[in-house]
Amino acid sequence: MEAKKLKKVIAMLVVAIALVSIVSLSGCTDTKEVESDTGVGKASAVLEPGPDGLTNEQRNVQRRLEEENSYGNLQWLYCISTYSGQIIYMSSVDGKVTSSGKRLTPTILGASGDWSDTWMRVNIGDESYRTQEVIQDDGTYGSSEPYIFWYDMNGNYHQQFMTGGVMVHISDYPIQVNDVILNIDALGENSTGWS
């Protein structure tokens, strides 16, 4: 009986050595770091979370979700010309601005044959469906328009979209935008290089 066990162990070792040899010969063990044309490699950093266990990025996202979805939230929307800096349109926002891509139900539903463990169940009306779309933090499906957001030193919220000739700015308080005057004469006669 011991001889059978020994043969089995030797056979497993031979298979393991063969697999290691195949992997090393195929180049799969190449662990060279990616670097730029100038020879600069990837950098990394160690982030230390705050006392709440969150990084600043996580805290900003959490705070935005809580404030934007609190009942009675009021924001201000400004459409500003990127050419002149003047306000084209201003409006109060009851609650928050919502992207047209947001939905209450997923847009991708699977047929019954497509259901697997990776699909999540969603009820629409009286019917049960499966989807691979993940519900977002705000309880909706779909995507938002790309934008940046931040809080200023007074704790006021700002959200900025850039679209063609119009810049959309959203804030949780009214902002004052000064008139912008473009004075071309101040540039001088040959400042553009034209004669």
Structure explained in plain terms:
The protein is an alpha+beta fold. It has a domain at about 75-175. It has two helices and seven strands; from the N terminus they run H-H-E-E-E-E-E-E-E. The strands form two sheets. It has a five-stranded antiparallel beta sheet, with no helix packed on it. It has a two-stranded antiparallel ribbon with strand order 3-4. Strand 1 and strand 2 (about 85-95) form a beta hairpin. The chain starts with a helix and ends in a 24-residue tail after the last strand. Mean pLDDT is about 80; it is low at about 190-195.
Q: In brief, what are we looking at here?
A:
With 195 residues, the chain is α+β, with helices and mostly antiparallel strands. It contains 2 helices and 7 strands; from the N terminus they run ααβββββββ.
Structural key phrases:
disordered C terminus, two-stranded antiparallel sheet, 22% strand, 2 helices, 195 residues, five-stranded antiparallel β-sheet, 19% helix, alpha+beta, 7 strands
Q: Determine Rg (CA atoms, Å).
A: 29 Å
Report strand order across the widest sheet: 2-1-7-6-5
Q: Could you give the order of the helices and strands?
A: HHEEEEEEE
> Portion of residues in helices?
10-25%
| Residue fraction in strands | 15-25%
Poorly predicted segments: 190-195
* Discrete helix count: 2
Q: Structural class from helices and strands?
A: alpha+beta
Shape: extended
Please give the largest β-sheet.
5 strands, antiparallel
